[in-house]
Design brief:
Largest sheet: 9 strands, mixed
CATH architecture of the largest domain: 3-Layer(aba) Sandwich
Number of helices: 15
CATH class of the largest domain: Alpha Beta
Number of domains: 5
């Protein structure tokens, strides 16, 4: 029998702040797991997911018209059209059975695979069918009206980073990449025990005359645990059978990451809990100076964390939501909830000028004072990655000419779980950068190229810009670190391309990078040097390279073209060539610098990035041609 002197008393009540610290210090982290894509919604990625394929996986027409060899249209206009023969037609969803030779075209529909020999599409509105073929009334450049393989997201690109909450947006991107199983953070298993002879499980007969009540806490807490990202496990009702209570506590501790009990405030029940904790764990807190919630226990039972909650349902739920739910969310990799709208100021002016209502995709970033800035995100309606690059949308009323820089706008979030990234970066696409970003909690990076990253940094939008090549030294921003990378021509394993001279003089198909890329600027400088040696200008050198005008945005895309046999050489990095087992012709090294927005140098995430840049050796391991600097 338990005497009055045996009863545990609440002494030295902990403050709410102390209680938060104690609960936060509990280890409730589960092991990671892999789940089917269909079950991945609301889970959190445990590791980075890179694109293994290009999206789209082929060069495709972006409108109805005629697939052409662009050079055949040069000089054509309304007054002086060019007539080309029709070699055949290509429809969406079928493999082309026609080749576009010089002087011919192929009729093509939107979304269809570009046929061999064609590098541009003339929209049907600028053509006229004639007895001799088709009359072309405009000139096009290579790549016009064509969505190149990897234009949405390219093989080798960083698709999603660890810690990403998987919403329908991310599921769409993973589906596009062909991912059917997803590595996710485990959900902490939370065992739930309710005690008291008066409790009856819903569905069982209730004797109100005997003072019985339905067990509210078990189901309420199970719902709260699930909402917080945990996996609730309800154990049988123990009543006031203390031997059974002890057995269930041991069983739950062996099977779960966290054990919750509610009630158990009688002297005998508390004695059972104390005995179990003293035998197998540690009592860390007994009682909190808060109302409701004074009778709160925190400790460990074996390898499991334990929290004893009050018996009254409102008190139990309040204490759980206040103190325990944040720990469950953190263990599951989830952030704390917020409302579905956010108010911020426009980081840049956004012009519109159409008479229609616009739902403008928008991203969020915090400035140096913690205030929200809103920036437009629009890669086109067909780009899956716009879904994860944007946090929501701004409803722009019809008749709005522009949103001014500094104007306050409301952003409707895609999900209540959306949070601004801790770090917003823009600029050069680089494989070492992907590893670097993995060291930062919840970053967002837009690979827009060095030139565009530097421009947007000047406008005050990103926290950092990553700049490569000559532009790395052409700035007045705060340089927080960087590295050197070896660049050149990625070629086939048996290629006889040995340098730029071969590319200029030989009949090789080349794949270039876009003009915003630091690689492209270094490449153009090398071409200028070749021209100077030969006494000719860049235009003549460029004209001799088949494919110079056909550009890609991602660092692996040219190499992937070579790997597929669609090109003889591509502009790229030694690291990419080594990864894909391709040949490489070195053209030199170039610096890659990470530049911080001077006003946000004090942001915690920028500081964390600077620290990671100070220790790059571990990240460059296994990456050919990459060296810390």
């Amino acid at each position: 029998m338990v005497t009055v002197s045996d009863r545990r008393e609440f002494r030295d009540l902990a403050s709410p702040e102390e209680a938060h610290e104690v609960v936060a210090g509990l280890d409730v982290d589960p092991e990671p797991e892999t789940v089917p894509l269909a079950d991945a919604r609301d889970r959190v990625l445990a590791e980075r997911v890179d694109a293994d394929i290009d999206v789209p996986g082929f060069d495709r027409a972006s409108m109805d018209g005629y697939a052409v060899h662009a050079r055949d249209t040069f000089g054509a206009d309304e007054a002086d059209p060019v007539t080309l023969s029709v070699a055949g037609e290509v429809h969406a969803g079928e493999e082309p059975d026609v080749t576009v030779d010089s002087g011919s075209v192929a009729e093509i529909s939107t979304g269809a695979v570009m046929p061999p020999g064609a590098d541009a599409v003339v929209m049907v509105e600028r053509t006229t069918e004639t007895d001799d073929g088709v009359e072309i009334r405009t000139s096009v450049a290579p790549g016009d009206n064509v969505m190149l393989a990897g234009a949405d997201i390219a093989a080798g690109a960083r698709a999603l980073g660890p810690g990403t909450r998987i919403t329908p947006r991310e599921i769409g991107l993973l589906s596009a990449l062909g991912v059917d199983e997803v590595p996710v953070r485990g959900r902490p298993r939370v065992g739930i025990l309710s005690t008291g002879d008066e409790l009856v499980r819903p569905g069982d007969p209730l004797d109100s005359a005997a003072g019985q009540i339905y067990d509210v806490n078990s189901y309420t807490l199970a719902g709260a645990v699930a909402e917080a990202g945990g996996e609730p496990v309800m154990y049988p009702h123990a009543g006031d059978d203390y031997e059974e209570m002890e057995r269930l506590l041991h069983e739950a501790a062996d099977e779960c990451d966290l054990v919750l009990s509610s009630g158990s405030t009688s002297a005998s029940a508390v004695d059972v809990i104390y005995r179990v904790i003293e035998e197998r764990g540690e009592l860390r807190l007994h009682g909190v100076a808060v109302k409701p919630g004074k009778p709160m226990l925190v400790g460990t039972i074996g390898d499991s964390a334990y929290v004893g909650l009050p018996g009254y349902p409102v008190s139990a739920l309040t204490i759980f939501q206040t103190f325990v739910a944040p720990a469950v969310r953190n263990a599951a990799g989830l952030e704390q909830p917020q409302t579905a709208t956010a108010s911020g100021t426009m980081a840049v002016q956004e012009r519109y000028g159409e008479g229609r209502r616009r739902l403008m995709p928008a991203g969020l970033v915090e400035d140096e004072a913690g205030s929200l800035l809103v920036y437009p995100v629009d890669k086109g309606s067909g780009a899956t990655t716009s879904l994860v690059d944007a946090d929501g949308f701004v409803d722009v009323p019809p008749g709005t000419d522009y949103l001014a820089e500094g104007e306050t706008v409301d952003v409707t979030l895609f999900s209540p779980a959306v949070r601004p990234p801790t770090l917003l970066g823009m600029g050069e696409d680089d494989p070492l950068l992907s590893r670097l970003l993995d060291t930062i909690d919840r970053p967002r990076y837009l690979p827009l190229g060095s030139t565009e990253g530097l421009r947007r940094l000047g406008n005050g939008v990103p926290d950092v810009a990553v700049v490569a090549g000559p532009a790395a030294d052409d700035h007045d921003a705060a340089d927080i670190g960087g590295w050197q990378r070896e660049w050149g021509l990625v070629v086939g394993p048996e290629s006889d391309v040995a340098g730029l001279g071969d590319l200029v003089d030989g009949e090789y198909r080349f794949v270039n990078r876009d003009s915003a890329s630091g690689l492209r600027r270094s490449f153009d400088d090398e071409l200028d040097a070749v021209g100077e040696d030969r006494g000719v200008g860049r235009a003549e050198i460029v004209d001799a390279i088949d494919g110079y005008e056909l550009t890609t945005k991602a660092h692996e895309s040219p190499a992937r073209k070579v790997l597929a046999g669609d090109a003889d050489a591509g502009l790229g990095l030694r690291a990419t060539a080594a990864k894909l087992d391709l040949g490489f012709v070195s053209l030199g090294t170039q610096p890659v610098r990470v530049l911080a927005n001077p006003d946000r140098r004090g942001k915690a995430s920028v500081g964390a990035l600077a620290e990671a840049l100070d220790d790059l050796d571990s990240l460059t391991d296994g990456m050919a041609g990459m060296e810390s600097q």
